[in-house]
């Protein structure tokens, strides 16, 4: 048996369903094939997102606010669907099938987007000499929406499973493979950034200089090639069995607590049910927060179900749950305040790929004989992320390890999140000042130069500070959030907690759309909004709007959010009650209660018979 364990991998299976052999499955080659899918996903999604606002305004003739909302809704849906993809992968399809199916869906969406940007019938006619533009029709927008949301659907399924399936290729119980898994995580984040860099530089350049349909067609073909490479590793992959959904676990605890809402919760831990099959190290001590849920561990006669045929009894998880399972649900609840206070950062992030790109499209972007595409300015954003990560790894962490005992990892996850939020506040304040300068130049330039599509005599590099500040903020907050949600979540809910983290990105984009709509409604009518010609803060032509006021509003909201975050971060720590150390006595009392409940249930059955 020991020999068999040495050449097979724990609970991993091969493609035939047999125990996976170490020598024939897993390792770096299968993991690399999985990473190819992620590179192409980032290449397509970010290459489309960062430059989509210019297509919507310049070709489809939509307003600035409407264009921004389409982009943020697209990105928000992509991240929100990660929850669906994770649920399907964990409970039904498995990660391999989930990746394969959703990769095909994304390739279909990218191909349809290439077609919609190529056919003249799916675009409105160009603006006439009078500068009057015909807005895209419902059919034309419908074709665009279909392609975008197929891509979003594919992205959501991929992002939830790629990292998990990659780590499945390494055995955590093997020290050599465990170190390779840590290396995989580093390369995974590096390749995400590499894919993003290629998207915001090469793909954006091809879109602007060669043609959007060519760029999107390249993305489609590269994804098809990636899918074929992914499928080629089918016999080499290690697979995990599908397990029960953490969502069901949470619902069981809540259901049991609601059923027993009228019972008084005992003060002693010994009177609450704990699963005897759980080892001492895997048990979670009872805490005094959310005591209502503790009622789910109160044992009653109705908690057992007796099989009449063989006389065995089982506990109904919808009526009774162990203290450890209840504490796992409490751990998820404690994540929520920090989760809520990080959403606004991603609203600010959304401005970097929408309004900031539109700002860049109005400014002087020429270096020598080369004109920088407006969407490619986000390369400074990505560069700030890489520089900040390198600075943290090479300078901050070694200094903390040398001079600050107990801090070998540098800043804690909550501190990193806080730093990211502060940088976002400063970034929006700087963005507001830069926009004030740009608007002053637009007013001085006169009516002809300020028209939509014209270039203002001001350098685009004025926008670099806001990209650098928010990019550095993302480096801190992304790593902090990921660390927080993984380390503070229960062992069996790591996938769900990662999905919960990704929903902050989704809701941040959706909140951006909502905020833009509210600001438009309040400031856009009657000339009372402060914009030129009565167009409000977010005018169709940003040269006549007050985008600086919108950025200032975001900076103020973020400052208030930072204050709320400090309170939530302090509250998120669990408060443990006094624990009864005599675990044997607790188990004996529980066993007696279970035997009594079983005997009572059998007596009731006999009486009824």
UniProtKB/TrEMBL annotation:
<feature type="transmembrane region" description="Helical">
    <location>
        <begin position="550"/>
        <end position="571"/>
    </location>
</feature>
<feature type="transmembrane region" description="Helical">
    <location>
        <begin position="499"/>
        <end position="519"/>
    </location>
</feature>
<dbReference type="InterPro" id="IPR018456">
    <property type="entry name" value="PTR2_symporter_CS"/>
</dbReference>
<dbReference type="Pfam" id="PF00854">
    <property type="entry name" value="PTR2"/>
</dbReference>
<keyword id="KW-0812">Transmembrane</keyword>
<feature type="transmembrane region" description="Helical">
    <location>
        <begin position="95"/>
        <end position="115"/>
    </location>
</feature>
<dbReference type="InterPro" id="IPR036259">
    <property type="entry name" value="MFS_trans_sf"/>
</dbReference>
<feature type="transmembrane region" description="Helical">
    <location>
        <begin position="370"/>
        <end position="392"/>
    </location>
</feature>
<feature type="transmembrane region" description="Helical">
    <location>
        <begin position="454"/>
        <end position="478"/>
    </location>
</feature>
<keyword id="KW-1133">Transmembrane helix</keyword>
<feature type="transmembrane region" description="Helical">
    <location>
        <begin position="70"/>
        <end position="89"/>
    </location>
</feature>
<feature type="transmembrane region" description="Helical">
    <location>
        <begin position="413"/>
        <end position="434"/>
    </location>
</feature>
<dbReference type="GO" id="GO:0006857">
    <property type="term" value="P:oligopeptide transport"/>
</dbReference>
<dbReference type="GO" id="GO:0022857">
    <property type="term" value="F:transmembrane transporter activity"/>
</dbReference>
<keyword id="KW-0472">Membrane</keyword>
<dbReference type="InterPro" id="IPR000109">
    <property type="entry name" value="POT_fam"/>
</dbReference>
<feature type="transmembrane region" description="Helical">
    <location>
        <begin position="213"/>
        <end position="231"/>
    </location>
</feature>
<feature type="transmembrane region" description="Helical">
    <location>
        <begin position="188"/>
        <end position="207"/>
    </location>
</feature>
<comment type="similarity">
    <text>Belongs to the major facilitator superfamily. Proton-dependent oligopeptide transporter (POT/PTR) (TC 2.A.17) family.</text>
</comment>
<protein>
    <submittedName>
        <fullName>Protein NRT1/ PTR FAMILY 6.2</fullName>
    </submittedName>
</protein>
<feature type="transmembrane region" description="Helical">
    <location>
        <begin position="331"/>
        <end position="350"/>
    </location>
</feature>
<dbReference type="GO" id="GO:0016020">
    <property type="term" value="C:membrane"/>
</dbReference>
């Amino acid at each position: 048996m020991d020999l068999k364990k040495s050449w097979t991998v724990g609970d991993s299976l091969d493609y035939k369903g047999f125990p996976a052999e170490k020598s024939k499955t897993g390792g770096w080659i299968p993991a690399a094939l999985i990473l190819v899918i992620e590179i192409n996903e980032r290449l397509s999604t970010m290459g489309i997102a960062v430059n989509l606002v210019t297509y919507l305004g310049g070709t489809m003739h939509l307003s600035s606010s409407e264009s921004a909302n389409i982009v943020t809704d697209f990105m928000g849906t992509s991240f929100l669907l990660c929850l669906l993809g994770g649920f399907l992968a964990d409970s039904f399809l498995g990660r391999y099938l989930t990746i394969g199916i959703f990769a095909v869906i994304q390739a279909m969406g990218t191909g349809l987007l290439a077609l919609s940007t190529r056919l003249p019938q799916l675009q409105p006619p160009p603006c006439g000499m009078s500068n009057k533009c015909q807005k895209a029709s419902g059919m034309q927008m419908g074709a665009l929406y279909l392609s975008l949301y197929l891509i979003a659907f594919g992205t959501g399924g991929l992002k939830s499973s790629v990292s998990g399936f990659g780590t499945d290729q390494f055995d955590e119980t093997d020290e050599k493979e465990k170190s390779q898994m840590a290396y995989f995580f580093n390369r995974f984040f590096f390749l995400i950034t590499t894919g993003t860099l290629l998207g915001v530089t090469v793909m954006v350049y091809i879109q602007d200089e060669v043609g959007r349909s060519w760029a999107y067609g390249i993305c489609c073909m590269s994804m098809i090639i990636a899918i074929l490479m992914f499928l080629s590793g089918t016999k080499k992959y290690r697979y995990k069995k599908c397990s029960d959904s953490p969502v069901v676990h949470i619902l069981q605890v809540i259901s049991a607590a609601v059923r027993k809402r009228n019972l008084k919760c005992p003060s002693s831990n010994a009177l609450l049910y704990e699963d005897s099959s759980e080892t001492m190290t895997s048990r979670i001590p009872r805490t005094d927060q959310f005591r209502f849920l503790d009622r789910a561990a109160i044992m009653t006669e109705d908690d057992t179900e007796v099989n009449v045929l063989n006389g065995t009894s089982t506990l109904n998880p919808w009526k009774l749950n162990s203290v450890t399972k209840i504490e796992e649900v409490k751990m998820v609840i404690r994540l929520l305040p920090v989760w809520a206070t990080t959403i606004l950062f991603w609203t600010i992030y959304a401005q970097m790929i929408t309004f900031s790109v539109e700002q860049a499209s109005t400014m002087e972007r020429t270096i020598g004989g080369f004109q920088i595409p407006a969407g490619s300015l986000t390369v400074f954003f990505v560069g700030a992320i890489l520089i900040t990560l390198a600075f943290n790894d090479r300078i901050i962490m070694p200094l903390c390890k040398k001079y600050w005992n107990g801090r070998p990892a540098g800043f804690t996850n909550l501190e990193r999140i806080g730093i990211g939020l502060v940088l976002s506040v400063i970034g929006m304040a700087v963005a507001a000042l830069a926009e004030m300068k740009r608007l002053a130049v637009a007013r001085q330039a006169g009516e002809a130069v300020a028209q939509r599509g014209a270039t203002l005599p001001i350098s685009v590099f004025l926008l670099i500070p806001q990209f650098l500040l928010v990019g550095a903020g993302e480096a801190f907050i992304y790593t902090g959030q990921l660390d927080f949600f993984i380390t503070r979540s229960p062992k069996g809910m790591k996938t769900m907690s990662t999905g919960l983290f990704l929903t902050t990105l989704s809701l941040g984009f959706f909140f951006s759309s909502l905020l833009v709509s509210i600001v438009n409604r309040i400031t856009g009518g009657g000339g009372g909004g402060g914009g030129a010609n009565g167009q409000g803060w977010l005018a169709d032509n940003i040269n006549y709007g007050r985008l600086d006021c919108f950025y200032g509003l975001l900076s103020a909201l973020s400052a208030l959010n930072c204050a709320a975050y400090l309170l939530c971060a302090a509250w998120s720590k669990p408060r443990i009650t006094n624990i009864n150390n005599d675990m044997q006595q607790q188990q004996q009392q529980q066993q007696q209660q279970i035997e009594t409940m079983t005997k009572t249930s059998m007596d009731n059955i006999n009486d009824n018979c």
